[in-house]
Design brief:
Strand content: 25-35%
CATH superfamily: HPr-like
Strand order of the largest sheet: 1-4-2-3
Number of strands: 4
Oligomer: single chain
Mean pLDDT: 94
Helix content: 25-40%
Distance between the termini: 30 Å
CATH class: Alpha Beta
Low-confidence stretches: none
Number of helices: 3
Structural class: alpha+beta
Largest sheet: 4 strands, antiparallel
Length: 87
């Protein structure tokens, strides 16, 4: 299991369209993916879970991956967030 803290840079945070991109990317990996914000941890492959965290620009979240491709998952999801979802 590995994790990485990232800061949300895009203007709308992880709402609707960016959250959809995030879970599509998360679902492309075999590993289990979780997203943590403060004391809440949700399934990173669940749109409702991601939306329920209310993640906005400037917030830091922790992405956690556990499985066969965990390193690739962390790298891919962190890169997606760091590019601001290409917005």
């Amino acid at each position: 299991m590995i994790s990485r803290e990232v800061t949300i840079k895009n203007s709308v945070g992880l709402h609707a369209r960016p959250a959809t991109f995030f879970i599509q990317k998360a679902n492309s990996f075999k590993s289990s993916i979780w997203v943590e914000r403060e004391d809440r941890r949700i399934n990173g492959k669940s749109l409702l879970g991601v939306l329920s965290l209310g993640i906005v620009k400037g917030m830091s979240i922790t992405i956690i991956a556990d499985g066969a491709d965990e390193e690739e998952a962390i790298e891919g999801l962190a890169a997606l967030i760091e590019t601001g979802f290409n917005e």
